[in-house]
Amino acid sequence: MKFDFALILTALSALTGLIWLVDALFFAKPRRLMAREGEEVVEPVIVDYARSLFPVLFFVLVLRSFVAEPFRIPSNSMMSTLLTGDFILVNKYDYGIRLPVLNNKVVAIGAPKRGDVVVFRFPGAFEGDPTKGVDYIKRVIGVPGDEVTVKDNRVTVNGKAWAYTPIGTYVGSGAGMAMNGADQLTEHLPGRDHVILQFPGDGYERRNGTWTVPPGHYFVMGDNRDNSADSRYWGFVPEENLVGRAMVIWLNCEGWGCTDGFDYSRIGDTIR
Predict the structure, then answer these.
(1) What pLDDT score was predicted for residue 259?
(2) What is the rounded average pLDDT of the residues 53-82?
(3) How many helices (H) and strands (E) does the chain have?
(4) Is residue 162 part of a domain?
(5) Rounded Cα distance, 97 and 93, in Å
(6) Residue 272 located in a structural domain
(7) Confidence of residue 9 (pLDDT cuts 50, 70, 90)
(8) Closest by CA position to 117, among listed 256, 250, 244
(9) From 65, 75, 80, 138, active-site residue
(10) CATH number at residue 238
(11) Is residue 180 a part of any domain in this protein?
(12) What are the tens digits of pLDDT across the range 196-228?
């Protein structure tokens, strides 16, 4: 079951706010009058907690829902751009203001562009998929109306093949060691160069095909091309599933509770 932090945060904000409001409207004034008359009055503990917690919870809810949300990279599918253990901030307003929990867009601002690294709620690969709704992160390859062709990890969009430049063999550390020996290539996406990885040689079964991106949907792929479950396998990302655009790495650590160490060199890296 997916842990829905937004739902819990919204519910706690509503509960503490309601307790504080009800007390202010119906019970606080009688307590003040009793205190003026010399009676010893003790504020209920639940009201004290609600008054203290509500501003903090509400501030975090607003910040997380409309400005930026933290996200931890769960897999190596975006190597070498992102590693397992990277903690990133996700821009929540570039693609429109959405209501927390419901995720309904209330203010349209912009839309993903080719090359954006986006976080989205996984639409599911099949009926009853238990991972449906889990947060995924991939790179936008095709926007609505695009015809995307992928052959041996090379991309063609609307009949124009993207260029690729080999840049050597990948050597990583920590979580990055999982792809040591992979081929590194610069993918020259128009206006957005970035590095992709693939297994060396041609002896790998790769998902090839041509897809036309329907209205309101996006075609996404991982930068670790031979180690990414993406639109080549399960289809398109609906616009309503978008969470936001990945902005910056604010921490990298490995192990439960960061017990296996930190990589300070990645802190502050912008995500391209």
Answers:
(1) 67
(2) 94
(3) 4, 16
(4) yes
(5) 5
(6) no
(7) very high
(8) 244
(9) 138
(10) 2.10.109.10
(11) yes
(12) 999 998 767 889 999 999 999 999 999 999 999
98 and 126 co-located in one domain: yes
Confirm whether 105 is a catalytic residue: no
Q: Do residues 242 and 112 touch, judged by C-beta distance below 8 A? A: yes
Domain that holds residue 86: 70-266
Backbone angles phi, psi at 16, to 5 degrees: -65, -35
Q: Is there a single domain that holds both residue 55 and residue 76?
A: no
Listed residue (182, 192, 137, 132) closest to 162, CA to CA:
192
Three-state SS at 232 = helix
Burial of 248 (0-12, 13-18, 19+ CB in 10 A): middle
Distance CA 157, CA 128 (A): 32
Q: What per-residue confidence (pLDDT) applies to 95? A: 95
User: 98 and 46 in one domain?
Assistant: no
What are the distances in angstroms from CA 206 to CA 51, 111, 182, 226? 57, 30, 15, 7
Residues 47 and 83 in one domain: no
Contact by Cβ (8 Å): 155, 164: no
Q: Is 138 noted as a catalytic residue in this protein? A: yes
DSSP string computed for 40-96: -----HHHHHHHHHHHHHHHHHHHHHHTEEEEE--SSTTTTTS-TTEEEEEESSTT-
For residue 223, the tally of other CB atoms under 10 A from its CB is 22
66, 90, 114 - which closes a domain: 66
Rounded CA-CA distance 224/255 in Å is 22
140's tokens: 């936008």
Burial 125-153 (b: 16+ CB within 10 A, else e): eeeeeeeeeebbbbbbbbbbebebbbeeb
Please pick, among 77, 80, 228, 231, the residue that the annotation labels catalytic.
77
Residue pair 252/262 in contact (Cβ under 8 Å)? The answer is yes
